[in-house]
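Weekend entry, working from home. Most of the wet-lab plans are on hold until the incubator is repaired, so I used the time to fold the two sequences that have been sitting in the queue since the last round of cloning. Logging both here for the record. First:
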Amino acid sequence: MSVLSLLQAIVAIMIGRPDDAKGRPQDYIRDSDKRHSVFGHDDYDESSPSASEMVLARKPYDIKVYLNCLGIVRRVDAFLGKASYKLTNEDKRNIRFYLARYVACSIVRNAHCPPSEIAKIDLDKISDDLILPFFKRVKSLYRRHGGNDEAAKSPKLGRAFDRIMINTFSPPHSRRKAQFAS
């Protein structure tokens, strides 16, 4: 496991930015706020009563969250590697993080992937039959946005994908809040 692979899995699933995971993962290394959103703050100390709210807000995820996010991406990679889907290597690389996020959202039934729910995922229960309908939807969306590397890195595709996740996996009152925040 490389740090970059782990970073990309967390950015795609937990941060909800598969476009960044594909196109701008280094931003999450260079920018301290983005890095802390993935790995927590270096000075995080839950026991310190004087810790600032900013530091407390940057608590690292539970180790199971990191492992499950990476496991979901690996399971998606295995699915995409099957010859029957007739994907180019570029297509596999371009849709993997979108598909991983879709799978995670579907399992926890939530567009925001709560860490406590992601930590509970049993990776052995992620079957090809579970992934297949999401693969078809992701592939279709990807093709509608250009079906290339540029599309996969595009915030435009990321926003369109996010709307689908919210409309599919969020209760109606949450959708209204998300629409006003956009």
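Second, folded right after the first finished:
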Amino acid sequence: MTHSDGRDIDTAMATLSGEGAQQVVKNARESLRQAQPKPWEHIPGSGGEDVTYYGLPMLKESVWSIDIPIYYFLGGAAGAAMTLGAAVQFACGKSRELRRFSEICHWTGIIGSTLGAAFLIHDLGRPERFLAMLRVFRPTSPMNVGAWILAGAAPSAIATGMLIHRDGWMGAVGEAAGYVSGVFGAGLAGYTGVLVSNSAIPAWIAGRRWMPVLFMASGATTATSVLDLFYEGPAGSRIAMLFGTAARSVEVAAAVQVERAAAEVPIVAEPFSRGATGALWKAAGALTAASLALTLVPGKSRRKRQIAGVLGIAGSLALRFAVHYISNASAREPRASFHQQRKK
């Protein structure tokens, strides 16, 4: 005898037991009728030249949560701050103000890399998953290389912040750690751009040559924007202004190049100009451009620098979220990959 509750179990051969057996399907026959696929009247996507995989997306959307774009944002800012701190540390000589400015850069890197690592590990779900990525070193894997970069950046930055002002050999270790953190910081600011573009997502395949540049410039924009908000020394402020102006200029130019590369295949570029993803991408560009324009306005007003800093931070954060959501929108489009491959 068949137990007809939608599961069709022959109770002479099997018994319904366990947690799943307690589930009850209401209107079982109606549920089965609705779930039954309708017969094809024609083979989907077979007509004409615009072929798809049965009208379905060929790629899956990212399973990453919003922790990842936040990690992009914090890691980029931290990496750029470490690199700037190491450069100033090398060139500052005995200037007390610039030594202080370098220290603030390193502490910005410490805070950013630590918080970024926390968001990354939260997205992974369990801390040991991050440690599992360090069992091997695989230069061909941006994710594996990025895990090693993060594992080296935060400890070297912390060692710098804790030891650089000590006397004797401990101070020398702090100095050396500052340069090491600068090297790791450059990698931390840019590897996420390599990671994103080293995927099957059509939007980022198109702009793969510009994505690392865009991410590094955006990280530098964020780092200098933070310094614009919290640092007041004249020499350090001048360095932050020059470095930030260059970073904002490169960020705006690289974003234009990424979108232009995607536009070579019109359907690939649609997420950059349509819907919520398009609005977020355009907002990121407008905020960064406004921040750049404000830094170019003559004058040394602290209020002007602070407003430019807020706009720069907002633009960089919007950019990272735009990248995250454009990835999913590009993956959902069933024709984008096919059009891109035919273009080649």
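Plan for Monday: verify the second prediction. Residues 67-324 form a domain with the Formate dehydrogenase/DMSO reductase fold fold (CATH 1.20.1630.10).
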